[in-house]
Specification:
heterodimer, A: alpha/beta, Glycerol-3-phosphate (1)-acyltransferase, 38% helix, globular, B: mainly alpha, 75% helix
């Protein structure tokens, strides 16, 4: 009797050490990571509601299906956590905050938290910016993925919103991608850069209407236009000029 | 087993001294080879792996019965995870989820007392567990109403549970015996020495391959040498089980010598059929957890039943 050989599908990251596996993107779906992340998301939501009295406005703007990008001002680590709490719980494993690889994936414990709890996409903001952007656009081609971006590139120390960097423009200009401007208020007071723990201050997250820039011609001009437009919209949601 | 018993256990103390002495000796040997200008980078990585693993194993045994059973359960779960990741079974969350749950259940069953006899560890349920687990695994395709490709998944899940879960976890049952320190410390020590002996004899005398289409690095000389060493170990370490008669010592040596190498060969052909080199990269210089505990998988259940039938639980 001749039996056909079985087809095995070893995990593509087999033989790589854990530290490297966590930095890989896209990551392999793991049952353990999903379980931990689901529990963490529930606890995070409870903490946000109770400790920070988080209010979310404009949740209905999140698309029911299809992918989108959430673009937000960046005042503290709470921004990411608030945005993660604003998406439906079943999307939590398909919601990827872009996180600076040089900070959030710099050590094994940090990588573990970023990859397992936050589900972060390691974004190289220095050397390989174009590669990281390509990762982002590949992600957005699939249905139902949510990308969280902070176009300022770093947390503000003054409280004023910084200029949007060109990455979001290059991602969106001339492409059919829904971008939702968001604004978080109170993050600066609750958890300023340099403090170890957040303080119990109220937070308010506003999610704006989806923008789409597919009508623009790709090019530097459009990139700048997208950045300027989104910057204005985020500032508007915050109730003031940039 | 408990912390208090471990402190007062002469067997535990002796193994502590033996292992500590061997580690110090190996460290000095590697150090002097390094000073003599030899390249010892690869054995040094392996040695550093040992320096991390040995204190963990001894520490867990020191903490007592519960810690040992939890540790064995964790090892079985990690071992199955590596197997699932290597074969692709990990993509099927229902199948692998049932096996994880079953491994956890075996851990609980090894821990709780027998409801009728009151003795620690529910031996009867442990032995009957495969019946229920295999039934659950076989029912998954029925529930899914799917046939295509299910036979391979069912087969892999059953093998994964029986081999990496159930057989390996007999080690935890040994923690329930009266002579737990002697049995467990001897088995872990002897199985690892058996591995090292096979490697060393193979390097020095090895010419003829043992099973060249499964594992090209294993040689007949290494295998014979390792069985020789393993046959001698129970006599040298008789203090671990002073109630054993010479026949049992011979049997113990055979179980460790033959069973250990069989376990190694089984993992080798599993890896070779899949087409991977190591089961993982968890332990520096050793590969995955399975690459380290593979030799224990045959030894633990057969030794356990030998003790149960002939040796008394001490």
């Amino acid at each position: 009797m001749i039996m056909d050989t079985w087809k095995y599908h070893p995990s593509p990251d087999i033989g790589t050490p854990v530290s490297e596996r966590l930095r890989r993107f896209p990551r392999e779906r793991g049952m353990l990571a999903y379980a931990i992340r689901s529990v963490a998301a529930l606890m995070l939501r409870a903490w946000m509601r109770i400790y920070h009295r988080l209010r979310i406005e404009g949740r209905e703007n999140l698309p029911a299906r299809g992918s989108c990008v959430l673009v937000c001002n960046h005042t503290s680590h709470l921004d990411t956590l608030c945005l993660l709490s604003s998406v439906p719980l079943r999307s939590i494993h398909r919601c990827f905050p872009a996180a600076a690889a040089d900070y959030f994936f710099s050590s094994l414990p940090r990588s573990a938290v970023s990859a397992v709890l936050i589900n972060a996409l390691p974004f190289d903001r220095k050397a390989k910016g174009a590669e990281s952007l390509a990762l982002c656009s590949a992600l957005l081609k699939d249905e139902g993925n949510i990308l969280i971006l902070f176009p300022e590139g770093t947390r503000t120390t003054s409280g004023a919103m910084g200029r949007f960097r060109s990455g979001i423009g290059r991602l969106a200009a001339g492409r059919d991608i829904d971008i939702l401007p968001c604004h978080l208020e109170g993050g600066m007071r609750a958890w300023p850069k340099g403090r170890l723990f957040p303080r119990p201050r109220n937070l308010r997250l506003r999610i704006g209407q989806a923008q789409n820039y597919r009508h623009l011609e790709p090019g530097q001009e459009s990139v700048n236009a997208v950045c300027a437009d989104l910057e204005e919209r985020v500032a508007e949601l915050g109730g003031g000029a940039a | 087993m408990s912390v208090e018993l471990a402190i007062n256990s002469p067997v535990f103390l002796r193994y502590l001294l033996i292992v500590g002495g061997l580690l110090a000796f190996a460290g000095i040997a590697l150090g002097s080879l390094h000073l003599a200008g030899k390249d010892v980078a690869s054995p040094m990585r392996t040695y550093r792996g040992w320096l991390i693993m040995i204190p963990i194993v001894l520490g867990v045994l020191f903490l007592g019965r519960e810690a040992t059973i939890i540790g064995v359960t964790l090892l079985a779960a990690i071992g199955f995870r590596e197997f699932a990741r290597a074969t692709g079974l990990y993509e099927d969350w229902w199948m692998s989820g049932i096996v994880y749950a079953a491994i956890l259940a075996l851990g609980v069953v090894s821990m709780v007392p027998d409801p009728r006899l009151g003795s620690p560890g529910w031996y009867g349920f442990f032995m009957a567990a495969p019946v229920f687990v295999i039934a659950f695994i076989l029912l998954v395709p029925v529930v899914r109403n799917n046939a295509s490709g299910e036979l391979q998944k069912v087969a892999l899940a059953i093998l994964g549970f029986i081999y990496f879960g159930w057989m390996f976890m007999h080690l935890g049952l040994l923690a329930n015996t009266g002579n737990a320190y002697g049995y467990l410390l001897f088995l872990v020590f002897a199985v690892e020495i058996n591995d090292v002996a096979a490697y060393t004899f193979g390097r020095i005398f090895g010419k003829r391959k043992l099973r060249e289409r499964i594992s090209p690095n294993k040689t007949l000389a290494g295998s014979v040498g390792a069985i020789g060493v393993s046959m001698a170990l129970p006599w040298l370490l008789w203090f671990s089980f002073p109630h054993f008669n010479p026949a049992l010592l011979v049997l113990t040596g055979l179980i460790v010598g033959v069973g250990g190498q069989l376990g190694d060969l089984v993992i080798s052909y599993i890896k070779r059929d899949i087409g991977i080199k190591d089961m993982g990269a968890t332990i520096q210089g050793h590969g995955g957890i399975l690459d380290r505990v593979d030799s224990m998988i045959f030894v633990a259940p057969i030794f356990f039943h030998m003790v149960r039938w002939f040796g008394g639980t001490g």
